[in-house]
Design brief:
mainly alpha; 276 residues; Farnesyl Diphosphate Synthase; 0% strand; single chain
């Protein structure tokens, strides 16, 4: 019964992740089955938390997130949950010995998104980076497959990748922030200017350079997947860099599925030829 339920739990996490995070599916497919299922479990856990903040209007988001957090910690301690998403997540946390401090940092970062924080708030940095960084480090723990020394070596590059992804997503979603300034996920500042765009681009470029230099340090089975994700964000960065500030604010920016497929194929060829 337990083994069957564990498999059902993993399948639920996989289905939820593929539905909500289709952009990552090509990269994840390059991982081994075992690692792939673990990444899906982490993404599913994160997706439910984000759903509470982003979509459940006319409900008590603070109470819902508090309940979700409490159930998460109970699942990890008990090594079981009747919630299939939390059950598959606790399996990954316990199997890879992921520090629950990362889970707490992620949930705290999500919690702060419920509040409308000014840019000078003492919690602003955690609000803007905490959840994304913690999620990235949980994934890194899985990709290192139990090699703690390798995890420590790649922790800083992983944080830089999370930072670059966060900044790229903020630029990519500038039109949403511009037209939804009054929502709980909007930031109360006129943050996007020509100077800020240039500063973010320079920061992203530096972060992506560090990431690319360190991909080869990952186990070979993880290199392919991360390089595909890197290639996607690098292509997104080049696209955003060419756009004017006005175009970014009013446009929906993204990479087409066909382009993602070509990037993935190119990444696999480079990895086979040792050209990464």
């Amino acid at each position: 019964m337990s083994n069957l339920f564990d498999q059902v739990s993993s399948n639920c996490s996989k289905d939820l992740s593929k539905t909500y995070r289709s952009g990552f599916s090509i990269g994840i497919q390059a991982l081994s089955h075992q690692l792939r299922e673990s990444i899906y479990s982490i993404y599913a856990f994160a997706t439910l938390a984000e759903e509470i903040v982003n979509s459940l209007e006319n409900r008590d988001k603070k109470e819902l997130l508090s309940d979700y957090s409490n159930e998460t910690y109970k699942a990890i301690a008990r090594r079981f949950s009747l919630n299939p998403i939390l059950n598959s997540f606790q399996m990954v946390i316990n199997k890879f010995r992921i520090d629950t401090a990362l889970v707490s940092k992620f949930l705290k970062g999500i919690e702060l998104k419920i509040y409308q924080l000014p840019a000078d708030s003492k919690h602003f940095e955690l609000y803007t980076t905490g959840a994304t960084e913690a999620l990235g480090l949980m994934i890194l723990k899985v990709l290192c497959d139990g090699n703690h020394q390798l995890y420590e070596t790649l922790e800083t590059p992983a944080k830089k990748f999370s930072s670059a992804i966060l900044k790229l997503n903020r630029l990519k979603n500038s039109s949403k922030l511009h037209y939804n300034r009054g929502t709980s996920i909007g930031i109360h500042s006129d943050w996007l200017s020509e100077e800020m765009k240039l500063a973010m681009e320079l920061s992203i470029e530096a972060d992506l350079k560090v990431v690319k230099e360190n991909i080869k340090k990952l186990p070979q089975g993880s290199q392919r997947a991360i390089y595909i994700v890197f290639a996607y964000y690098n292509a997104l960065f080049k696209k955003i860099k060419k756009l004017s500030l006005e175009k970014i604010i009013v446009s929906k920016i993204g990479i087409s599925y066909n382009r993602k497929f070509i990037l993935a194929l190119d990444s696999l060829i480079k990895q086979r030829l040792n050209l990464l």
